[in-house]
Design goal:
7 strands, 43% helix, 11 helices, 275 residues, 7-stranded mixed sheet, alpha/beta, Rossmann fold
Length: 275
Amino acid sequence: MSLFRAIQVYLQQHKYAINAQLLGDAASLAWTNLGYWHNTQHYPTACRQMADHLAQAVDLNASDALLDLGCGRGASLLHWQQQYHVQQLAAVEWQVACVAQIQHHMTDVTVQQGSFLHLKQLFPQRFFDVVLCLDAAYHHSLAIFLASVRAVLQTEGRVAFHYLVLSAYGEGLSTAQQRRYTYLLQAVDIQLHQLFSFEDTLKQVEDAGFDHVQIEDLSTEVFAGFAHYIQQMPQKTYSVDAFKIQMTAKLCRKLYQDGVIRYVQISAQASKRSV
């Protein structure tokens, strides 16, 4: 097998796996998101800031039954317990190794291995006050993601997640530009045809049965912030993991500089009306 083919196979098998230690977090339950880079150049701090910004959008509190989607290695779960004193906590994670690690360290948390696009199958008899999805939902169709979330939310339950939207410039891409961005995003498991304008994204969320929708552009704090952090890091190792991180940072920088695609935080409340 050629080296190029070996890298392709590795990336396909481990497309969501991130070497947190190379990013700057050596904890057993490590952070693995892009981070919210406000007045810090410390990776775990930026990740905690991203989690806090998401939680604050839905006023997360200790009495909430919380479902964390795509929880990675579990740092966010520990954060919800320690900083928000959440007692009723469940999570979904696709990576088998991450689920095993969390179950070993956090025996009081229900962690389901599987896709968060099928939440009713994973939690057939359970409903949540809050659903949070930290830096992961944009790998999937917004409509399918929201339908899955809506099925396990309490009436007037709250949801917050990160997604990508097209800027006004992005809506006017030529066919050649669309093709270029399609290939670029497919490399990180994102489908350009599933991304829409701010206005159309808002309508999708409302049509899925949500009210009080808020969309906040975090492109500077996330795209530019992560790219700058990785650029400043000394490259200590040459590996597929390091290459993946470098390529992610370069993509973040390009997306930020081009201004075609914006990184946003979306929060909403489940409406009383049926969908």
